[in-house]
Structures are given as C-alpha cells and as structure tokens.
Write a structure and sequence with these properties.
Helix content: 10-25%
Radius of gyration: 19 Å
Distance between the termini: 34 Å
Order of helices and strands: EEEEEEEHEEEEEEHHH
CATH class of the largest domain: Alpha Beta
Number of helices: 4
Shape: elongated
Number of strands: 13
CATH topology of the largest domain: Nucleoside Triphosphate Pyrophosphohydrolase
Structural class: alpha+beta
Strand content: 35-45%
Length: about 200
C-alpha cells in the first residue's frame, strides 16, 4: 500500500488519528473529534488504493470492456480499461499496463484528463486518461478472477449510451466527468478532445 496517500497529505487528519485496519485495498483511520458543543465522537476515514481508467481510442471508435469478475457482484458490466495502482507504480504506468493486460493494446499518445475523488470520507483518487491512436500489441493477460470481452463503439454513440447504461460500472462518475467536467456538456467537444483536435 506504499502508493496510498500518506496521513499528512490527506484531509489534514488530527495528530491522534490511528490506523484501525490496513489491507491490500483499504486503510481505515480513526480519531476522536471534538464537536461544536465540546463533546467528542469517534470519526473515521476510509483510505483506498488509487485507480486508473483509460478511454481507449482506435480507428475513431472508443474501445472498452464488458466483463465479469469473481466477488460479490457476478453480473456482467461495462467498464473502461483500468485497475488499481500497484506499489511503486505511477498512474500513467498503471494505465499502460492495464490497457495491455485487459485489451492487448498500446498507445504512444496519452493525456490525463482529470483526477476524481468521491468525497471527504473516502480518500481515493481515480485518474482518467485518454489513450489515442491505440494499436493491437498482443493478447489479453487476464487475472483468474476476471472475464473480459473487448468491445467498441463510434465515439458519439459511446457518449450517448455507455455513461447512461445501467450496466456501466461507475456510470454516474462517467456522466459527470465525460459529459460535464470533461466536455462542458457538449458531446461534440468531448469527441474533439478524444481526437486531440481541442485541448
């Protein structure tokens, strides 16, 4: 968990904040918080290993995944290529690794479009990249816990449908990032950004 945000870099945790649990993905911090009426209460913050998600463009289409994973949710879902950042790995290195492992694809044209953190009680940063002009570079190298099919759609169809599909993992986040923060609510501008025509 070396890549996880250090205590002093998070939301200014109190000096008495202690780790109550530490695992591969999550670290739970607890501390005593003085309230407005001078009473105290136990507060918590969940720190999570960061992740990278990749919008992969090839031949004018957006390539993404339909996948199933072992775990609590076993139904098929749509997702961008991506995964958790390994110890000692940069977000860009994670994006390149995940695109190759999950999609058998590579790109020389990468752009970080945003960093997303869900809320102040859940310290996790997701990095969203565009990988333009992708090319096939090999075969998938999937974990035993995942079954992934690579699919693609024309850019405009992707933006119209996938962020709003109930089977899309993190669809609400995609709608916010891709259709609002990233593109100003303008699908054409989003397509132009993917193509690299508008910075």
């Amino acid at each position: 968990m070396d890549n996880m945000t250090r205590k002093q870099k998070m939301a200014k945790l109190p000096d008495d904040a202690m780790v109550a649990h530490s695992g591969y993905l999550f670290r739970i911090w607890q501390w005593t918080q003085v309230l407005f009426d001078k009473s105290t209460s136990r507060f918590e913050l969940c720190e999570c290993r960061g992740a990278v998600l990749v919008i992969a463009e090839m031949g004018g289409n957006i390539h993404f995944t339909r996948q199933r994973q072992s775990g609590l949710v076993k139904t098929e879902f749509n997702s961008l290529f991506g995964g958790y950042i390994d110890d000692g790995e940069t977000p860009l290195a994670t994006g390149k690794r995940e695109l190759l492992e999950e999609g058998g694809m590579e790109s020389d044209d990468w752009e970080l479009i945003c960093e997303y953190n869900p809320n102040d009680k859940f310290a996790k940063t997701d990095y969203y990249y565009i990988a333009r002009n992708c090319r096939i570079a090999g075969t998938q190298k999937l974990d035993a816990a995942e079954k992934i099919k690579v699919v693609n759609l024309p850019m405009d169809e992707f933006f119209r449908t996938i962020p709003f599909d109930k089977k899309t993992r993190d669809g609400q986040v995609l709608r916010s990032i891709l259709c609002t923060e990233f593109s100003g609510g303008d699908m054409l501008r989003a397509v132009q950004l993917i193509k690299g025509n508008q910075k």
